[in-house]
Amino acid sequence: MKAILALSLAVGASAWTVQPVGRPASRASSSRASSIEMKRKLKENTVRQVILITDMKNLGKQGEIVTVKKAYFRNYLQPYKFADEATPELLAKAEAEREVRAAEDAARLASCKDQAATIDAVCAGGALTVVRKAGPDGKLFGSVTAAEVAEMVADRSGVPVDKKMVDLPTIGAAGSYVAAIKLHPKVETSVTVVVVAQE
Is 125 helix (H, G, I), strand (E, B) or coil? Predict the structure, then answer.
């Protein structure tokens, strides 16, 4: 009798554990949809559109609208006045400033093209000549610098040229060299520099 009772309890227990315990299909799909919705809302709450007040390396230039993490904006960009929250008023102001900046950039580009044409016309007639003392082997005692070339170009053409604009190869001996002059990121011209050795 005890053996029969134990067997029936074991069979009943095994039958009980085999029964699937789950939610109805409609409830599972609605739970999945709400989970996706929650993730979307969480992502929306963690990012923010901002307008850059200054140029930021690897982020953008002044006046650009970028999307950043909310914490990055709150803890770094906003306290140090690198960016503002993109409100409709600031968006309109940024758009107006962008148009003004684009017009200024276009005017500067046209001016630099005119300056490059002037340098080409004036320096096409002859090379810039530099006289340097040299040893018997032809090596120069002094170097020719970008500042000297910039000054010679400015004197001859009337165009203000800074030494930072001049890309000059290393000059160690007498000869003819080409110096590139970058007036604008999109405008570049060149001049010929002839170095004469004086023994």
Answer: coil
